[in-house]
Amino acid sequence: MSRSQGKEQTPLAKLISLSGKTALTTGAASGIGKAIACRFAEAGADLQLVDVDKEKLEACCGKLSGYNVKIDTFNVDLSSKPEIEQLWAELKGKEPDVLVNNAGIYPMKKFLALDEAFLKKVMDINLNSVLWMCQNMIKTCRKKGGVIINIASVEAVMPFKEDLVPYGLSKVGVITLTRALAAEYGRQGFRINALVPGGVLTPGTKNIAKEILKLNVGIIQSGLEYRQRLPLGRLGDPDEIARMALVLACDLSSYVHGTLVAVDGGFLSA
Ligand code: NAD
Predict the structure, then answer these.
(1) What are the residue ranges spanned by the domains of the chain?
(2) Most buried of 25, 160, 181, 252 (most Cβ within 10 A)?
(3) 170 CB under 6 A from ligand 1?
């Protein structure tokens, strides 16, 4: 007999609501992070928005001011562990219920031209920051538990584009971290999953596209091949990732844990 049998079902409106919750999103000033912040606000969550770009973060707040929720912004360079520790010191007493580790960079470099500084930068922002953010969340929210959503990438599951080895590696780390923490901390009240976006049109990807047009014809070819392979035949919109982040954040997905949710237009299935 399922747990819901014999009991009144929770109304859908309550399951999807984040009212009374606080959600921290990193990389909230642009693209997918900004879209997530918008949907979370619509669902009633108070917001904690983290980004290295102060101006864009302020602009993002302006856009969100129409929602009747509390918004706190934190100008943090997540590649710095001391800055992450300082952030959590500031959050003392107002720790989030939901943490979305979204901030990331995807710079391209030929594998044979890689150097330590390049690799370190990508790993610090895309992987190490996620690890330290998760550690702080689990340490400081032990009593109440919480939800963690880590943003990975299809590149971790199926490396497709050239010149993205450090990026793919960092996102493999994000997936492994997600699964390991899910196995270890599920019983302690944490629900932890990874979202796996495919190609999404964001300011970040648009900038890269401009660079590529100037520099590298080979990568243009792989971009075309990517689109040809896509069963839905188009790139994604940031809001399409945000909607799934909302599902993972709220009680609609109360039994979804330790998994990878691909939002990729079918790319990984093709
Ligand atoms: P974006 O470049 O549009 O936005 C990223 C945000 O992260 C920016 O606001 C930026 O200022 C912030 N950021 C970067 N470095 C930071 C740092 N050191 N400290 C704090 N903030 C920092 O990117 P996006 O396309 O929205 O991507 C968001 C996430 O989704 C990334 O983790 C990316 O790897 C992942 N992803 C994106 C796509 C895609 O096609 N857009 C596909 C798969 C995965």
Answers:
(1) 12-200+236-269
(2) 25
(3) no
